[in-house]
Amino acid sequence: MIDLEQVRSVIAAGLYSHLNMPVVETDVEETPAAYPFIKYGFSGPVLFPDKPVSVTVIPSSTPDEVIERYTEQPSFRMTFLSCSDRPAASLTNAIRLHDWFRIFGYGELKRNANTVVVTAGDIQNRDVQIGSAWERRHGFEVTFRTTSIIDMQQPTIELINWK
Predict the structure, then answer these.
(1) How many whole angstroms separate alpha carbon 120 and alpha carbon 140?
(2) What does the angle CA 52 – CA 54 – CA 7 come to, to the nearest 5 degrees?
(3) Considering the entire predicted model, what is its pTM?
(4) For the chain, does the N or the C end have fewer beta carbons within 10 angstroms?
(5) What's the CATH number where 70 sits?
């Protein structure tokens, strides 16, 4: 199973530490009152490879069972937005955000979430008008690859009669 909560937690903590600004999930009512801040969210399908799942058998803690471990490497996407009241600040923070995925956070994600960055997309202007004011946004998509591991206990065969 993919531990998306662990991935989300590592990303949010790493970005907060690197950028020193609030990092909030998209569509959460607790949007920070002051600029700048970062928004993120899962934005695409989880894509599983078109090849058979890898199955390995590992010993169990009991002699009556073995564990079948099913392993595959799905990919998924997330969207990241740098939000500010000034265009230059929004773009600068988006570049710093992009750098974290390509350089600083790559190893952190690999170590702590068993996830790697496949691509960090192009930074695009995503400004929105909220009432009479403009929220300056620059954002991009990041594609990740992770490992999905499912363990299933199976009883062992104790006796086979050959005739």
Answers:
(1) 7
(2) 100
(3) 0.85
(4) C
(5) 3.30.2000
